[in-house]
Design goal:
Layout (H helix, E strand, L loop, with lengths): L1 E4 L1 H8 L6 H12 L4 E5 H15 L2 H12 L3 E3 L3 H10 L4 H12 L4 E3 L13 E2 L1 H10 L1
Parallel strand pairs: 1-2, 1-4, 2-3, 4-5
Helix pairs in contact: 1-2, 1-3, 2-7, 3-4, 5-6
Length: 139
């Protein structure tokens, strides 16, 4: 099963943001252990880097944490096709459009996000980390 981590969940791991870090870390760990395959979009990696550098003010630490995250999750490519489709969607948040089109391309089962409303009507279920972890426990 493929799932996509929204930028905010990936940042929870990188920045170790409480109270969100533990669940985000569990999701990344589940991917590392082969329970499912979690992805971050290629376009999100640059956003994650920029936001994390601004927050942590330590480029070396940010790179170390991004490398560690990428040992547990895969990268969903973003091509011109995904960007053009995202533009055509005309959602309020363009970044969410790009995330959705990247997830759509790799047939993710869900998008794991702390902002499910940003993906309303996307056709891919958007669920928060707690819901995803509960779903995995049940499956």
């Amino acid at each position: 099963m493929n799932v996509l981590l929204d930028t905010n969940v990936a940042l929870d791991v990188i920045l170790q943001r409480e109270p969100f870090y533990q669940n985000a870390r569990k999701i990344a760990d589940g991917s590392q252990h082969g329970v499912y395959t979690a992805f971050v979009s290629a376009s999100a990696v640059t956003d994650i880097y920029y936001i994390a550098c601004k927050e942590l003010r330590d480029k070396k630490l940010v790179m170390e944490r991004i490398k560690a995250l990428l040992e547990t999750v895969d990268i969903a490519t973003v091509t011109g096709v995904e960007i053009r489709r995202a533009i055509d969607l005309s959602w309020a948040d363009f970044e969410d459009c790009v995330q959705f089109t990247a997830g759509e391309r790799i047939a993710v089962r869900c998008i794991i996000t702390r902002d499910p409303g940003g993906f309303a009507g996307s056709g891919i279920p958007a669920i928060n980390p707690e819901q995803f972890l509960a779903m995995i426990t049940v499956d």
